[in-house]
Amino acid sequence: MSESVAEPYPPGFFDKFTTESDRACAVLAGALLDSLLEHLLRKAMVPDSSQELFRAQGPLGSFAAKIDLALALGLISHEDHRELTLVRRIRNDFAHYLDHDLNFTTVHIADRVRALQLPRIIIEYNYRLQKPFAEEYVQAVRESLRRRFEMAVAFLTAHVNDRIKDVTAPQTPAPVVAKLDHPAGASA
Question: pLDDT band at residue 4, thresholds of 50, 70 and 90?
């Protein structure tokens, strides 16, 4: 995975993302945040130590495992964990239910989207932002579960990307033999 975090997703991602079907929107949102969390975790690990951890059947192969480890390592807050878990569950609903009519207004998905706190907080404090959102956008987020989900994903993306920029990679510790007073291979 590249060390560059300036463009963690393909150019124009959010423009295309907002025009996709509800199913594609949710699945792409999950894939994007999963990828960003992997980048965050890899950056917080000793270089060249994580290859096997992130393989599909590895301990960090799932979105859920990445969210949990990021919290355990203090890379994200409990609130971030909650929001990311809701996005993951919404993504899973769309990815694993065969119902072609599934959308953001389907009851169990709508309930999960309404549980996202980030859009509510942002709208509530919009007037305090340096560059407040246009009232038309705020109204669309209030009225549309899809727009609410998109806003949560956009802010989580920016937040995780900021965390990636803040994390410094640890140094590989010296091997135990470097701490011995006598040369390697000498008998004690």
Answer: very low
Compute the radius of gyration of the chain from its Cα atoms. Answer: 20
pLDDT digits (tens, 9 = 90+) for 143-168: 999 999 999 999 999 999 999 999 98
List Cα–Cα distances, 61 to 2, 30, 37, 50, 114, in angstroms.
18, 13, 11, 11, 28
The pLDDT assigned to 1 comes to 39
- Report d(CA 155, CA 159) in Å as an integer: 6
Q: Give one DSSP letter per residue of 49-73, joined into a string.
A: --TGGGSTTSTT-SHHHHHHHHHHT
Pick the CATH number of 13-170 from 3.40.1280.10, 1.10.630.10, 1.20.120.330, 3.40.50.300: 1.20.120.330
**Digit-coded pLDDT (tens) for 97-122:** 888 889 999 999 999 999 999 888 88
The structural domains of the chain, with segments of one domain joined by +, span 13-170
Length of the chain, in residues: 188
pLDDT at residue 27 tops 70: yes
Spell out the residues 6+ positions from residue 155 whose beta carbon is closer than 8 angstroms to its own: 118, 119, 122
Contact 83, 156 (CB under 8 A): yes
